[in-house]
Amino acid sequence: MADINFNYKEGEAFPPAQIVSISPGFTDTQIIVTKPNWITITQDRPNNKIRVSLNNRVNDLPEGVRNFTLLIYEREIIEFGIPPDPYIYANILINTYTVQVNYTKRKPTTVNPNKLDFYHMIGNSTLPAAQGLGITSEDSYTISRDQPWISISRVSGTGNTNVIIGVNVQALVPGTYNGNVRVQDSLTTFTIPVSLVVDGELGTEDFLFATPSEIRLEHTRYGFLSSPRSVSVNASGSFSIEATSSWMNVSRSSGNQNTLSFDVELNDNVNALGIGVFVSEVVLVLGSITKKVKVEVDITPFIEDLFDPDKLYFTDDENTIRLVSSAEKTQLSVIVKASNQNQSYRFKYGIPFFKGISRTRVGGEIRKIIGKLPKNDLGELISKAYIPYTPSFTDLDITENKIFSDEILRGVPLKDIRFIKGITPPDAKLTNLPEKIYITKKGILSFSFLEQNSASPETITISGAIEKTISVQLERNDLYSVLIPLSDLEGLSTGDEFTMSVSGVETNIQIKPLGIDHCIVFWENIWGCWDTFECTGQIRSRNKYSYTSDEYRLNRNSLIKEILEIDTIGEFTIDTGWVYSQEEVRYLESMFISRNIWLLIDGRFIQVNTKNSSFDPYLTRRFKKSFKLTFEKTIR
Fold this sequence. Notes:
Elements lengths: L3 E6 L8 E4 L8 E5 L4 E6 L4 E6 L9 E17 L6 E18 L5 E3 L3 E6 L9 E6 L3 E6 L4 E3 L3 E3 L2 E7 L7 E10 L4 E11 L8 E4 L2 E7 L8 E7 L3 E5 L4 E3 L3 E2 L2 E9 L9 E11 L2 E12 L11 E3 L5 E5 L5 E11 L2 E10 L4 E5 L2 H7 L13 E3 L5 E11 L5 E13 L15 E4 L4 E7 L8 E6 L3 E4 L7 E7 L11 E6 L2 E7 L7 E6 L5 E6 L3 E17 L2 E18 L6 H8 L7 E5 L2 E7 L8 E3 L2 E3 L1 E6 L3
Parallel strand pairs: 1-7, 9-16, 18-25, 26-33, 34-40
Antiparallel strand pairs: 2-5, 3-6, 4-5, 6-7, 8-10, 10-14, 11-13, 11-15, 12-14, 15-16, 17-19, 19-23, 20-22, 20-24, 21-23, 24-25, 27-30, 28-29, 28-32, 31-38, 32-33, 35-38, 36-37, 36-39, 39-40, 41-42, 41-45, 43-44, 44-49, 45-46, 46-49, 47-48
């Protein structure tokens, strides 16, 4: 028996790859494998393994058993030459493996007969008998027709089967009709011509036929209108067409002698019907003859909770779209179209159904589209209210469609759904800032909030130890930010307390003593807005050094290591100074998850990453805590 064995039948999945060991003398030499082109080799040098598998070229081989030997060589340097060929190599055989492949061709699909003929005499009460189409196959296949008067008993199959082919002669005038039935497997398409001869003469009496006599439509309330359905008419003279309900339209109001067709489609009035099954008729009249086409529409709700265009959504909430369906081989498809800073983005979800339910969550990609806050949004450090960013206006096309085609069964379009970063806050504040904070006269206060009472803020009011009103003028937006350097407020002393209020959002401030050093930490919080914390303890900075190196072989016995690049990494260790409340501790801890942090030291902004993941209190006195923060510069 061979070392490696494959059994493969054309059209089936390739057998699993097989892994064998190799025995090179060195860890960094080249491995060469001689093999036929229908074998694929993947090397795993760290584990001294190779992976042997079949590829598509095996289908070009004749049926039978193939035996060959896999030869595995190690390419070694045997001596040094003269540039441009500084090395002379030899291929050293290190392993051999015998391989056997048993390849079987799939038997071709056959269809019998290769032609179907039908005959009907007008006036004969016996309709043409249906005929069988025998299919012999080792593959799965589909069956289709290209004429409405041809009927087929099934549209797909696997293995051997007999498909019943019939014809519908109703409403057909004398003549010869030709169509096709197609059988398609993964390799071949068979076209079986179908011929129908309708013989005889029409009588002198008027007649009117309509096919089909019933139409069933499905509609998702407030969703896309379903495709029109066609009705074929055969008449002896002029006739009228009328839709009896206002929620459907017909494409024409009358017709003439001979055969024609018209479309029946839903209109927007169908949404007023509610949920359920509703029945109406299309009436055709020729003289004293009346024909009715029954139209039934099944109206269903699409998803349990639609997004509301009048509501603001948060990207990190459970913004779940859920769809229930009893259809087969369909999926929930959500196309999301969003824009930010004059850039348009489009992405798509496709989620199959599990036990009739499909769901997906929207928000993560929109957070990425909104992106990081640029530092220059802070602008000049003066007392102000400003707009940190505008929401992402997002369009959602929510549909149920076939998995293997673009056919849409139902859907709902949603326009201008507004998203901002974060989760739904417990109140109007878009910050973890405590109700009361302690900062020095050199501190900077920053916080953000949601729009209140559908109005933009007009004033920032300061009351308490000092009284001041700052006028602001802003366009309407869903969120706003406030930035107040306390150096703008004259007459402050240690121990002073005052309240800052804007649009009903209040923060209480108490002035604490100055410290050894001074630093303001700015970070982008989960809502995409700037928060700040003032550090009054000692600031220490230092540079660390790292390097990037590479190794190459001078000869088979010598390895050379060279330094390619030296990195200088700036690091800051900053003591927070006294932190007076546990709420301030939790507020500062929220910085650790931010990926957009800046330090303001001596009037200069420095972008950094935090190296802290939790607090380690190193000094406690009278319940006042101080912490050590470590940052690393992002730009080296």
